[in-house]
Design a protein that fits this description.
The structure is a single chain. It contains 15 helices and 4 strands. By secondary structure, it is mostly helical. It has one domain. The termini are close together. It is a multi-pass membrane protein.
Length: 329
């Protein structure tokens, strides 16, 4: 009897080839593309990374947060302090800012984890508001009106846009690859077991508290990275822009539309959100109302999101995390 463990499919292998082609193509965009394209791709990357981290936290970890903008904003302000006040290179500061946000997430988790369910979701939003109000009362970083990142003034616009774009592309690749490899590991299986039944997972010897802390910190690091990237490209930062609840609202929209608990979900959702934002954002309140109606419609008609519906109909999986046992007699 021949026993094999299958961890990839024809679709996933084809997706890998297409992804490599896309990476090569995308990496050359600054050599021939327009400046506006680079800025849009950086913004898209920030929304995508933020949504991927929310999906990791809620879709796989079962921790539904509406306050992840706390770490997004902290990433932006950490960049400001490191680049403008400490005098570090602004692009190096992006990485350091994300690491500092991860450190801040450890004591914050001690507060957040004292809450469960809906209280956890509301509590994370309150934490984000505390950070926003605190930053708004610090004159050194611009107070409530915000400030510009002056460390970028000595760098040419073309250089700033190119480096920011390549960093954003590298972060997207690292985000997808890192989440995928983590979910295929034993720790990833443990995380999904905690999501499905925390008590049962603990009874099987899984260190629930430690695993939740790791995921919370990793999600905070990713959100901080997205925040630092966004504001190094945007140049100006303010508390309302950095800690706005819209960041988490849009991330939830992206994940719900694409399919929660799937790597493909945020990818599909981010593309749809970017297209809607590009063509309908000028409609203001009507645009936001339309996003809400679309989210409700997808929730009612496609309970597993658009990719979940496609997967249910076709069995197509681009990022397989399960293990299939093939037995030949």
């Amino acid at each position: 009897m021949d026993v094999q463990v299958i961890r990839s499919t024809r679709a996933s292998n084809a997706a890998l080839v297409l992804a490599l082609v896309w990476v090569v193509f995308a990496a050359t965009l600054p050599l021939w593309g327009e400046s506006s394209w680079k800025r849009e791709m950086v913004e898209f990357s920030c929304y995508f990374i933020f949504a991927m981290m929310w999906n990791l936290l809620a879709g796989y970890g079962g921790m539904v947060s509406v306050g992840q903008q706390a770490f997004f904003g902290l990433g932006g302000y950490a960049l400001l302090v490191l680049a403008d006040i400490a005098g570090l290179n602004p692009f190096v500061s992006v990485v350091i800012a994300a690491l500092l946000v991860a450190l801040v997430a450890v004591p914050v988790s001690w507060i957040a984890f004292r809450l469960q369910g809906g209280y956890f979701a509301v509590g994370t939003w309150v934490i984000a508001e505390v950070f926003r109000l605190t930053i708004a009362n610090v004159p050194a970083v611009g107070g409530g009106s915000g400030t510009s990142i002056t460390a970028l003034r000595g760098i040419s616009r073309a250089m700033r846009e190119n480096v920011t774009y390549w960093m954003a592309l590298a972060c997207v690749i690292a985000c997808i690859g890192g989440v995928y490899l983590f979910l295929r590991s034993k720790e990833g299986l443990a995380l999904q077991a905690i999501r499905d039944n925390e008590v049962a997972a603990e009874s099987q010897g899984i260190a629930v508290g430690r695993m939740k802390l790791v995921v919370y910190v990793v999600a905070a690091l990713g959100c901080g990275l997205a925040g630092a990237l966004y504001f190094v490209g945007n140049v100006r930062i303010s508390p309302d822009a950095a800690f706005g609840v819209n960041w988490t609202a849009f991330a939830i929209f992206i994940v719900v539309i694409g399919g929660i608990g799937r790597i493909e979900g945020p990818i599909i959702g981010a593309v749809i959100f970017w297209l809607l934002n590009k063509f309908f954002a000028d409609y203001g309140t009507w645009y936001q109302l339309g996003l809400g109606v679309l989210a409700i419609a997808v929730t009612l008609l496609f309970r597993q999101g658009l990719w979940g519906w496609v997967q249910g109909k076709t069995g197509l999986t681009l990022f397989p995390t399960q293990r299939l046992l093939k037995v030949e007699l």
